[in-house]
Amino acid sequence: MRSHDFSSEILNTIWQLKKEGYADSTLKAYDSRLRGLARHVNMDNPEAVKAYIASKNTWTNAFKEGVVRAYNHYVKYNGLSWKKPKYKYSKKLPYIATTEQINKIISNCRRKYA
Fold it and tell me: By CB count within 10 A, which of 5, 23, 26, 41 is most buried?
């Protein structure tokens, strides 16, 4: 387990991204992902981080990509270097309601909207 608290390094990373104009929602997501990593792995060891991310079988590739993106910023602003892993993911098809479901929705609407 780790013995160092990475809160100040994570805060520095988020602050640098804020100065670059990243959206608050992006900063919140990156902060959450970095703090989650810091709870389980030494953030100053990129190979350990890479191995930890790869070992998470319950995470989708899209989520892993988001964690890698957040950690990549951490590496950049804390003077580390690493070779970023690539996670390929396919976008899901949008949900399309059946004709029966659409008819149920319409039948439950007021006459004005139906």
Answer: 41
- Number of neighbouring beta carbons within 10 Å of residue 71: 25
Report the CATH number of the 7-88 domain. Answer: 1.10.150
For the residues of 1-34, what is the DSSP string, one character each?
Answer: ---S--HHHHHHHHHHHHHTT--HHHHHHHHHHH
Domain coordinates in residue numbering, the chain: 7-88
pLDDT in tens, 50-66: 999 999 999 999 999 99
| Helix 24-40 × helix 61-77 angle, to 10° | 90
| pTM for the whole structure | 0.75
Helix/strand/coil for 91: coil
